[in-house]
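## Example pair
The file below holds two records. Each record gives the amino-acid sequence first, followed by its structure token line.
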Amino acid sequence: MIFVFLRLRSENSLDCFIVAGLISSSGLRERSCYILKLLHIISTLNFDMCFEVPPVVTFYSLFCVISVRSGSYVSSSVSVKSDDSKKGGQPNFSRETLSPTTSVQNESSDTDIQTQKKHMSFKDNLQGIFQDLENQILKFLKNELEKFKKILHEENTEYFVKDFGENRCRIKEAALDLTLYFLKEMKQDEAADTLEDELFLIHQLKWDLQKKYQRVFEGIAQQGDSTLLKNIYTDLYITQGGSEQVNTEHEVRQIEVVSRRHEAQEIQVECRRLFEASEQDKQIRTVLTKGVAGIGKSVSVQKFVLDWAEGKENQEISFIFPLPFREMNLKEKETLSLMELITQFFPETKGLNLTRRNQFKVLFILDGLDECRLPLNFAGNETCLDVASPASLDVLLTNLIKGNLLPSALIWITSRPAAASKIPPDCIDRVTEIRGFNDEQKEEYFRKRFTDENQAKEIIDHVKQSKSLFIMCHIPVFCWISATVLQNILEEKRNTVVKNNQADDAFKTLQESNTEDTPKTLTQMYTHFLHFQIQQSRRKYDGEYTPDVSWDKDAILSLGKLAFDNLLNSNLIFYDTDLEACGIDVYKASVYSGMCTQIFKEETGIVLGTMYCFVHLSVQEFIAALYAHLLLDINKKSVFDQDSKNRNESMIDLLKTAVDKTLESDKGHLDLFLRFLLGLSLQSNQRLLRGLLTQQDHNNQIKEEIVQYIKQKFEANLSPERSINLFYCLNELNDQTLVKEIQTHLSKGSLSSVDLSPAQWSALAFVLLTSEEKMEEFELQKFKKSDECLIRLSAVIKTTRKALLNDCNLTDRSCSALPAVLGEENNLKELNMSNNNLQDSGVKLLCTGLKDIKCELEILRLSDCSITEEGYKALALALRSNPSHLIELDLRGNDPGQSGVKELTDLLQDPHCTLKTLRFLSTAAEEACQFVPGVVGKNPLLLKELNLSDCKLGDRRVNQLSALLQDKHCQINTLFLYNCSITEEQCLILSSALKSNPSHLRKLNLSENQIRNTGVNLLCDVLKDSHCKLKTLSLSSCSLTDESYSALTSALKSNPSHLRELDLSQNKLGDSAVKNLSDLLMKPQFKLEKLHLYECSITEKQCEILTSALKSNPSHLRELNLSWSQIRNTGLNLFCDVLKDSRCKLETLRLFGCGISDVSSLTQCLMNTKALQFLKELDLRFNHIGDSKQKLIEGIRDSNCKLSFRIEDQLPKPDDSRCCIS
């Protein structure tokens, strides 16, 4: 064993040793790693010395040669981490005397001489070299230790970790190893683990993910050339929100709907900020990102991970673990812990302890939920809390998502829309949706794809000319398909014309070229794509290019069967068993992916296992349609009845069956398949498939027959979605007749006067949906004022932002279309259905859509729609179910009943309710609602009693108040307007309001207002209305005359059954007035209980008339006030005659200030009749009563009655508490 011993004296007098030598003993291989790293410390310093490591080091030996060489650096393949550094093993630093070193023989003698000279120079300067060496080493180590300390203190950790990763070299790794070794020797394991995780495990994971994710294979992985992601990546349009409910529509149909969405109404989310919560949101732990197949979910994941791995974004996250479901499917039957699962997917994290001190922020990306074959039994799976406890994969994932495992971990799940409901909504904190490319991003993609600006512009212009193609370009994969096809067409055309010396034609655009050669429909595009890919594979494998394709029919039949059978079951991912079921040998699967390069792909996951899929769902549907034609062509069988022995299936039979089958599907999963199937029946499209399909002799006849068959289907009651797809089918068949008819009507503006057939209605919907201009506003009056028009055009309505359906003669029948408009993906933010007879039944149908969580309606107008209390309750219930969107609700002109207004105003107290404007009233009434709370402190719509007494209202306020009173939303039943300076003219306004809505008011006080005869006459129009149910009317001090009383009594005679209290005090009653009033009191239907005639100057004669009336109908009156009228003793005696009547039930009699001097008759009446049984209050104050009052007092006291008796003299309180005399 040979050693080189270097002894350095540090500043603190401690020795530092660097050892190198020839190690021949067994078991010391790991220690050589330490020696190498220490030698590298010296090798990187600026000294004339070098350490050369010969190949023999691989045989557990290390030979070190010290020679004089300027600027040398030693490279080594020794691992960054040695086992000893992890285990804390101590290197064997020997102090034995060193043996002479032996130099390696050089190839020339000149080199030997130079080496000897360098050795001599080295020996001469040894002292100075090692002095400088000591200073350099100490300075470097102190600097590195200071960085490590800051990392452990979490001071600027991101910068130092990044510095370590970007400037990583052997010397820094050696310094880290030394630090970790001594920390463990000092029993500081936690500090050592933290430092190791920060600088090694995290860095290693980032390094591996960076290598994996930095390149992208457009269309298909592992075939063709890859591209750096940063060179072609185009930002995708991602929005916040979206429903947790299942969207069962065909994904291409969803894309067509999305294409008409208005971006301004959506909240855009940057992919890099998925987990950033707004100030209003709670902390976001779990994000669900939805998007149709091929829209860019996995590429978004790739970009997110790559930005993190490269240190650009989200550096607060310590570890990101992407776990694709398609790969985890292969472990569905295994039992393992979460840490074992992570280690299997990411071996470089072995030994990681994610739960240590909860210091790590970890993100799990579960990509492709739609590909998951696990049951994900959130309700039934057992709880798992320990990351080290073994469990099934299903249990691990459900507990991870629910937060039982690693509750601090972030979770990002991606899924196609139909599978999103597999995750319970309460496990999701944020839902986002990838919309794909918006129109600007589509162009950006093509400009990045083609460096030739003219070529890019030409392709963009061509795609824009076809609505169906441009819509499909929302999907990045379709952009790639289009770019591939159109680029190939351009190149072939230009190569051909240049070859034929037609230089001028070489610059013809796609539009100027032969139309048959340029795809304008989906079928044409995919047929070109298939043709091109087969050509490419032949060129690759056979080394030859020919315009005609040599088709492998058996292979395409097998591939087509796989596509069709799994399309029926909505499967996109296939495994070995799926291939075997379709007759594909799994050992030859690569043949198929090779033959159809970039159409069918084979993938191998991180863990062992192989998956297969088509590059996109639309490609699978195209291959399935091609299979249907091929099966018919070869076997004369229909794909819909493959087991049948019938071998006489015709093309038209196949096409008709496909139309029927597609229309039977509510979710439309065969929609695109049908488009391709019909498109492939055209001779123009079969031209590219010659050699594969037999050319039909009667294609035109088949086309005409299937076109007519499709048009007949419009007569059935098809959903708008199914109808629209049939028009896309007609488009694939190049039939535009119905569309052109409707376009003619639109250009003439004659639609409102034309009766359209069901087919024409569907054509109108299709034209509006595919127009170049996005419709911001839909106005039904421009088309037809009818329920049918709304129902037929509902698919159009939901693509607009504002729908004006008001004044269109709509009924509750049209409301049946509204749940689909509001409850599915839509743009609608404002809906106006005012002035239609919807009634409660229509509103209930509307509420079905409102309560749907997909409904994002912000403004709803339902004024004058015949809605009652029941409809209001339905609205309140719907808005409680989905309170977070509607900000304005207009219900003016409806009748809310007793509780309708309260049902909705209570909703405003809900903290989740976003409703800001709840409009029940006209503008004037709204103004009343603004000034009234300033007086009474409450919203008048919630009041039963409104007291504005002593407020000088004036004309403006009276107008506002009248507008409020005449609205059915106003439920005020008691109105006090005492001393409000109301004039005769203002009384006209008030009376008009009360007349228009007379059913609520029960008590009205207009006292101390000079309304005079005119005002009373106007008020009488209200009183005589049979709907008026007024119980109390106060008109004291209103300057009434005999004319007023005549009108008043006449009105009350016509509607006598409701009034119970009448106050006419402080108005002079003439003889005719008293006569009219008495006539009213005599009517048995008039059931007045309280009559106030205080200070009305009633004479003894008039009192005789009144008492006569009371005697004829004495059973109703309970209270009578004739105070300050000079009825004298005569009048009192007359009233005694009334009290003597056994039918009299009078309880209160007020006669103060009436000139009474003798009460003897009253005493006798009270003592000898049953009057005291009813009489509760008797007021005789301010009368000059003589000695007779004493007998009255004694008689009342002895009667054991409960009478409250008031008289001028102040008497001591009687012992009997039941009798109160004053």
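Second record, same layout:
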Amino acid sequence: MEPLQKLVEINLRGKKLKKCQKWVAEVAATAMELKMLPKAFDSWYSLVGEQSRDLGQLSLEKTPNEELPTTLSIWLDLVDLLQRPGFNLSECSGSYSMAEISSQFFTAAFRTDWTAQNEEIDTLRPRMDVAIAFFMRFHLDALKTSKKKSTLLKTIDALALSIVEWFPESKIPAEYLLLRSEDQDTPIELGKAKEIAARLSASHPKSPMALVFQAIECLHAGENAQAREIFVEALAGYSSSSFQECALCIRVQVELASIALAARDVEGCLNRLALAKKVVADKTMMLGSEGPIPALYSEVKVQFMTAAAREYAAETDKALEHYHKAMESGDVAFTIRAAVAAAELLAGKARPQEALDIIDSVSLSEVEDERMSAAALCTRGWLQFQLGDLQQAQALLETNASKIPPTDVSVRGRTLKRLAIMYWHLGGSHQTAKTGCFGHLLQAAKLTPSDAEIFSWLGKWYQVVAKDILRAEKCFLKALSLSPTEELAGMALSDFYDLQGKYETNVKLWERVTENPETAPTWALLRLAQHLVEQNDEAAVGKLHLVLRNDPMNARYWVILAHVYQNFDKQVSAQRSYLKAIELGEESWCVRCELARIEGSLLLFDDALERIRPVVTGELSNGEPDVTVASMIYADLLFQQAKYLCAEGLYGNAAKNLKEASRMMKGLPSTSPLSGSVEACKLIGDIHCFAFYLSPDDFSSEGSSWVEFISAGRKAYEAAVLFASKGGKEAADGPDTVAAERYYDIGLSYWYEVQALSNVRGIPTSAFSGETGLDTDSSVAALKVKASTNFKLALQEDPSCSLAWNGLALVSDNLLVKQFAWTRAIQTGTSSDATWANLGMFYLSQADTVPTTASLAQKSFLQLQSMNPSNPSMWNGYAMLARRQANSTVQQRKAIEAFDCALQTGLDLDALLGLSMALLDFGASVGESITQAPEHSNEVVMFYLKKYLERDPFNGRAWHALGVAQHRLGLYTEALASYTRAASSTQAPEGLEWNTLVTKLGELSSTLKYTTEEESTLLQKIVAQINSSSSEASALQAIVQAQVLYRQAKGGEALNLLQALLAQDETQSSQSEVVALVGLSLASLLMEQFTSQATGLAAACKKRLLLSIDEAESTLTTRDYLNLRLVELHERWVGAEDTYLTRLQALSQANDGTKSSTLWTRLALAAMDSEALQASSCLAEYLRSSARQMPSLGKEMMDRNFLDALVGLFKAVLEPACLHFGWRERVEAHES
């Protein structure tokens, strides 16, 4: 390299320029071979670039040299070198600037005639295109980073313009100019841009900018779909384009927004407008150009397009807001356009006065464009027509319609159509003459043949004026083919088919025009929905959903939807639809009443009553409401709520509802036809007779009794029959089920009255046995006869009335008649579950006399279970069947479980009393797992009995049972009050006097200040009471007498008395077990004073109690554990540890794994303080047993927790001392 450089210097000093040039070229070539790129660049640049002093003479421009490549070729080599990887211009020896290099390159390139067609030019052309792209990219990148963009932008504009002139096929300069053509400071006109785009499209058909202009040409030709495809293709080419700035093209986003708006793609339009706004900001920031030309993009244009999009989205308020912003922009053209568009929108929403105000708010005098002013005045004329000013509308439309040029076919066609519609409403010759309405419709049809409304009015003209039904039908069909949503044509055509009896054709019409859910018209959807409802097809709901999509704020449509939901028994959906209608302003009293009915069926009684109350009180007067109808609905709601409150046990609230409903029904205006109607009497009867299921005390403060209130219901039923007979209804050929039901209501009301009167008077009654006390009371017997008579009248009207057969069975005194009637009720095939319940109870009541009927009762209850498993009578029947075998603990538990199931269905009276009595009777034998359950506590039993007595305060047995429950809870005063109520009944329960005395003793014991004399006196009274009782109380007499002797310090006599009594009982009865328990306790107390007697009695008592345990069933009962604990306490007291521990250990081992863990718990606790038994061994056995994993309840759980705590302490304290026994290892092995 050094020799070559010296040759360059020698020849340069010798002024041998051409030789020097050759050696410079040689240096450049050698440097390229040696990868000395900066040296190569310096050498080549010295031959073509601008140099100072002597080096400037080496330039081929000054000293041409045919032996060297051309200047342009060397420049192109330099450009290639600039793009070589690893080349850095700053490493060159000269001080170079890319801007200067670019300028010098293009100066050299300009001198070449690129239009010439020769091999050399064709060879250089691709390299030239690359070089141009390289320098354009340099200038664009410099522009983006420059802070002074204006000057540089103009430089690039000039460069690009010159390039496209002498090198037309260059890509990036052409794309750049097309991008700049949308700016206000564009260097080219639109015509020049189109010319450049055409050349670019020819040379680079996939150029994004070329595609954009192709798409614009398609838009001008009306080919929106193809234009959109080309625009999307252009967008897809952005990422791969060498001209990265094509992404800053505003035109693409704006035109795509316009296409989306034309297709009513609201979301697409708004998204494109948002993107356009972002592109405008990005372009200004990156290129420094002025904003886009207003015709392409402006804020007012965006507001106008946004308003149109919101209008298409049915967002009227937002659309009007944007139209108003466009009107305030100051742009006259857009102000008029926005005003007209807003007015048209309001006119379509039936708000013509607001639309007219908008038109009048703009000054048309400032509008220079006569076409635009005429369009606004024609819109004003149409608004005047909508407001009823036909003369003013005619003047405006006729004057300005001709000013709209034929080229504006859309506006001119719409105006002619409106002028024709106005002529139709003017009537007379305007309507009938062919030059009037008809002629203008024809002109409009030629201009806008796609306007369906024009053909609808043409069809109407042919139908009404020309009487040409065939042509009218064709016009209507044409209108529907253009727009299935055209209501005028659709309804007229549908009416045609109705008149012609073409129902199926009509249905096909509705189905055809609603095939597309997006465009399905409201008129056809409503008629099709009605057809589907008549066909019981739930698809009607879907059709109405489409209606609401068309007009979601229409309250009438929500009401219709609610009616349809109600027709298909979809109450919740109907309720929501009615609520939506009311929210939208629906104030019809009928809607309120229907909604109240539905809310009542959904148990929303408070909402229902609150909703209908304004109609009843007269506060709501819209639509002239029928207060009588509303009052009946209100009373019925109160009645339905009363039934619900009764099921919840709120009898007082239910009674208030009944009384209010009764007052309302009796207060109906006498002038109303409903006040004396059969329906009103039926409702009054239902209201009054339901009082039978409520508390009699709640009806004693109204000046009449409970029985009288029920009797009023019976009178109302009789009045209903009387009114029905006055109606003059012809006798039915077959059974009259309605009349049968009326007589059944009367019979049932008599039966309610019989039962109520019998309860009040204390007369025992039973619907399931033939033995009653009704014959002793003539009035009650007479009511019963009338009940039977009315049930028979019901059967005369309809022999298959199962309810009447059921009622007849209830009132009959003959057992065979009862069985026959219930069987006949079942055979009718329409029997209710009450029939099976009554039949089962009937068989059950006869089971003591005829044992085989128990199986028939069970079968009846099984049949009832298959019909209605929620009927409490079924579970009550199962429970009573189990009670018949009450000597078995298993059956006792079954009875309690069955009553529990009955109460799961509601507060059934029989279940309340049955469960309470079962728990009181069997609590000592069924075990703690039953009695200790929260739902079986004494507090719950007391609650159940109180709820029962609210409904039936005349039941002495229930009052007696309530007293027992209160006694167990320590409520002695309340218990004595309950016993007093029980004693006031006609038949005092057995054991009442005894329990009263025991409770008095409890009350005395509960007061801390009592004397032995008082207690002894009470005990003497109890003894006297026992003496007056049957012989079965001898054991109790002896126990009480022994206690008296003990209190009198006659312990020996007391022991002898119990010893003799225990020796007499050889049957091992439950009484002897009680005697043994008391005897063992007394023997323990007197062991020191009367050792011999006490020891003998204790031995006999232990033998009896332990024998009971040995003979116990597979599972020890609560009583067995009580016996075992008493024996344990006695043997602890007398110091016989070995005996009771050995016994506990044996029982625990025998029952381990299969019985309760109580025995193991007792053994482990006993072993803690035992001196005779190794505690460690016993505890190890306890830990190894499965007792710890077995469930425990009640007190047993408390014992188990206490034991576990003691075991932990025992291990912590005694573990070191127990190591030699191996206890620790055994415990750890068990725990692992």
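Notes on the second record: The radius of gyration is 54 Å. Residues 1217-1232 have pLDDT under 50 and may be disordered.
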